[in-house]
UniProtKB/TrEMBL annotation:
Organism: Ceratitis capitata (Mediterranean fruit fly)
Bilayer-spanning residue ranges: 100-123, 135-159, 165-192, 204-226, 232-254, 294-312, 332-354, 361-383, 389-410, 422-444, 456-477
One GO cellular component, as annotated: membrane
Name under which the protein is recorded: Tetracycline resistance protein, class A
Keywords carried by this UniProt record: Membrane, Transmembrane, Transmembrane helix
Main localization (coarse): membrane
Pfam families assigned to the protein according to its UniProt record, in alphabetical order: MFS_1
Its membrane topology: Multi-pass membrane protein
Length: 491
């Protein structure tokens, strides 16, 4: 069977749409199209806020650890804020305190993973019954609350030194509402609800673009706001962007589903309906023709494993760059922004040339994306100069395209009524990945901090290589199976 035959037929899709329209909580296209559901500006604002606050929060934790935990003078600890470059004294101090901060980051990642992973199994089905908007309002409000708490804590730290562990409080509101995972899942669900078959890909691209551009803008402006207003100004600005995003959502984005409020049970009781878990498990383990179950498991493994790498690196990349190359926050944010732009342009060109023009199979594009991830991590692990980190970004210009391509292959292997369940399992496992990746990466980084801090990227390169071999094997199996099918037809 060729990859082209993996997609559901038009008749099947039409039948699925007919079935969905008869559901008590389904959407009516004619009704939905009348509503304004352009959510991309809210996504853009929320990702500016999230990105600009994250790196500055690490600086604040370094500074508070230096002052409150290790009792150094404020003047000696000032370079930890990332505005001015480090001197020899501050370099030695930061080398001493970075393992402590790495443990705070690891703990924060673990806390923000456990509950969202559990909730993600229920949020999707619950939103099918009661709508996408309640979850979106809850997550946007939680993001605003979290950055408000961070702003208050940063203000209190100006009066008296605070233990940096207290900043974990700011992660609790978003964690209690499902985290960023729930937010993005609901955004994609809303876009899917209001788009026809031809418009879904375009709207998904716009959402991804809003997310990517918001991340770039947040990276670029954070260092300048920090230099002009200090940490309190950065966190207050982040909270302001959250407020604008929430107001936009409340006043300009309508519900994407026609929800009928006929149920007597409370919404909370409906949320924790454990029969949904049985359906999820059955969809993942049931037998399928032509070894498709094994293919699905391999794709799920690759998607979760790549997330494991990304979550392991996310909290340590800034600490690595400060330790290895003595970068300031502005250097770091500029590098992040450049890396994102390179990948956005690279992935766009790859899709245009390989998929649109030359019709290259999705698995081949995924293989090239994993190869880009491997090359980028390998170059980073061997880098001796800061410019070589930019070289790694150029070598990995296709990195990141593998995930959407694998998701597209996955969607073609299962029925439309099952894809939501499969994605829910993947989302839950991806959310749980920091539980494993944070201790592993933090432990390796702390153990090799003095001798070879780039060891974490060598681990990432090794994992990407395993995924590259696995997906390449899947593609070879697909080609062999397609040729056998053609031979049988000819015979």
């Amino acid at each position: 069977m060729s990859l082209k035959n993996l997609n559901p037929t038009t008749a099947e899709k039409s039948q699925d749409m007919t079935d969905n329209s008869s559901d008590s909580t389904g959407s009516s296209n004619s009704e939905v199209k009348k509503r304004f559901t352009v959510i991309e500006p809210a996504v853009f604002l929320i990702y500016i806020s999230t990105t600009m606050a994250s790196a500055v929060l690490q600086n604040q934790q370094l500074y508070q650890t230096c002052v409150a935990v290790y009792d150094y003078d404020k003047e000696v600890c000032e370079p930890m804020l990332g505005v001015i470059a480090k001197n020899e004294t501050s370099i030695a101090i930061e080398t001493e305190i970075q393992p402590y901060v790495a443990r705070i980051i690891m703990t924060s990642l673990v806390i923000s993973s456990v509950l969202p992973a559990f909730l993600s199994l229920f949020i999707g089905p619950w939103s099918d019954k009661f709508g996408r908007r309640p979850v979106l309002v809850a997550t946007f409000s939680a993001a605003l609350t979290g950055h408000t708490i961070t702003t208050i804590l940063a203000g209190l730290s100006m009066i008296t030194p605070l233990n940096p562990w207290i900043y974990i409080l700011s992660t609790i509101p978003l964690t209690m509402t499902g985290g960023t995972c729930a937010l993005i899942t609901m955004v994609f669900c809303l876009v899917s609800d209001v788009s026809d078959e031809g418009g879904k890909a375009r709207r998904m691209f716009f959402v991804d673009g809003a997310l990517g551009i918001g991340t770039v803008v947040g990276n670029v402006i954070s260092s300048y706001i920090l230099a002009g207003t200090g940490t309190i100004g950065v966190f207050a600005t982040a909270a302001s962007f959250d407020l604008l995003a929430l107001l936009y959502l409340l006043f300009f984005v309508g519900e994407s589903l026609q929800v009928k409020h006929e149920r007597k049970e409370s919404k909370l009781r409906e949320f924790f309906h454990f029969d949904l878990i049985k359906e999820l498990i059955n969809s993942c383990v049931k037998r399928r023709q032509l070894f498709n179950r094994a293919v699905i498991w391999c794709i799920m493994f690759t998607l979760v494993t790549t997330t494991f790498v990304q979550q392991g690196e996310v909290g340590l990349s800034y600490l690595f760059l400060r330790n290895k190359f003595n970068v300031t926050l502005q250097d770091f944010t500029t590098f992040n922004a450049a890396s994102i732009v390179i990948k956005m342009i690279g992935c766009g060109l790859v899709l245009l040339l390989l998929r649109v023009i030359f019709k290259v199979p999705l698995l081949v594009i995924s293989i090239l994306g994993l190869l880009g991830c491997f090359m980028e991590s390998l170059v980073r692990s061997l880098a001796q100069h800061f410019w070589e980190m930019y070289l790694g970004a150029v070598c990995g210009f296709m990195a990141g395209i593998n995930s959407p391509m694998l998701q597209a292959v996955l969607a073609g292997l299962v029925e439309a009524t099952e894809i939501g369940k499969i994605y829910a399992v993947i989302s839950s496992l991806q959310t749980l990945s920091p539980l494993a990746s944070a201790p592993v990466y933090t432990g390796i980084y702390n153990a090799t901090l003095q001798s070879y801090p780039g060891a974490i990227y060598l681990l990432s390169a090794s994992i990407y290589l395993v995924c590259f071999v696995l997906v390449t094997t899947l593609f070879i199996m697909q080609r062999i199976r397609a040729r056998k099918s053609q031979s049988q037809v000819v015979a």
